[in-house]
Amino acid sequence: MYKSPRGTADILPGEQGYFRFIEERAALLCQLYGYERIDTPVFEDARLFIRTIGPGTDIVEKETYTFDDRSGQAMTLRPEGTAPICRAYIEHGMHNLPQPMRLYYFASIFRYERPQKGRYRQHQQFGVEAIGDGDPALDAEVIDVACQFFDSLGIGNLSLQLNSIGCKLCRPAYLEELKGHYSAHVDRLCSDCKARLRKNPLRLMDCKKPYCQDIAQSAPRSIEHLCPQCKEHFESVVNYLLILGIPFEKNHRLVRGLDYYTKTVFEIQPQGEEGAQSAVGGGGRYDDLIEELGGKPTPAIGFAVGIERIVLNMKQQGVIPPAPSAQMVFVAYLGDEAKAEAVKLTAELRRGGIAVVSNLGDRSLKAQLRQANTLGVAYALIIGEEEVDSRTVMLRDMAKGEQRKVSMDEVVGLLERS
Ligand code: HAM
User: Fold this and answer.
1) Taken in order 246, 250, 254, 259, is the CA torsion positive or negative?
2) What pLDDT sits at residue 206?
3) For the whole model, what pTM was predicted?
4) What's the gap in Å between 151 CA and the centre of ligand 1?
């Protein structure tokens, strides 16, 4: 028996309502804020991700799905959405268009992680990227999109965590301070943190091991080592969030898992689970990324949310997506002649824009109506010998359990109007 690969899941018809609802709300919101959809390939040149996410990160070191294609070129299945969009921004000369470019996407993301609840090897993200402006008001706009998105889904109990990790001018001195602090405790650090101390000291801050957490708690804070420009930027972002009435918590241990961030970083987490690996969304500024990829210096900010984690939270909070509004009709028949009429009527209804499921094969009326019931259709149309002779059809209101004969020629118009 084959099974879906570890860490992946089939999204069965019964689950699709959640995904459809989330995508519809996201697209509507993006339209409201002037964000346009972009799609990029599922795989890219492997070097794109090594360069942008960072060679010392967990994602690049342990989690990418990388393979040589038949010409021997190393390709990586997209482990995040931002780098491909920056690549596309440069490739298509988007800097020539009015700035910032406001873009959004839905994308499958692939990371070879240890699967657990809310952590998969393939997941879906909805993300937005605003590229080409360094104004802190844009940080607030992007954070506002994220918060409004969760609001529009009806999910509550979330907290917005905010930090600034500075820029290439002020970060090096901060990292030295951090290393100094951790070096004094090196013997008791976990093995991952020992490696981080050498390779990626910023990531020391979000280790989940109890002892390492204690050291992080007393570690120097990036926010206290910002250069005047980053400090002013952070204060402005805070000010705009206050103007927009968006509640947030400053979190000096929030550093994010990708290397391209500068200045503002943020995450949205279920309340009470701050710091756990449960974020439903996260993002930040990446002012150097486009230049690193060979473009002109171009400030940018964005975020992405994990759709499966949102579905988990919706279920936990009892948020049920609205049922699709299409009123579906079931066409039932008895006998060969009636079946020919049923095939014809089904096609006419569909061409009239009415969603229909028709019976197949040779089953009792009882079995057919049972199926209509399970499908939750509004009406069943029943055609038997008598109906064929009189060119009528029995229209059954499934909710009321009442039925009446209507003319075969009028039934499409009747249902169109209902
Ligand atoms: P990220 O924090 O790595 O950021 O991922 C964004 C969201 O995707 C997370 O908050 C989480 O909800 C979800 N997620 C991540 N990994 C998994 C997983 N293994 N299983 C299920 N859900 C997961 C980024 O990817 C950045 N590109 C976000 C960004 C956009 N920054 C700037 N612009």
Assistant:
1) positive
2) 84
3) 0.93
4) 19
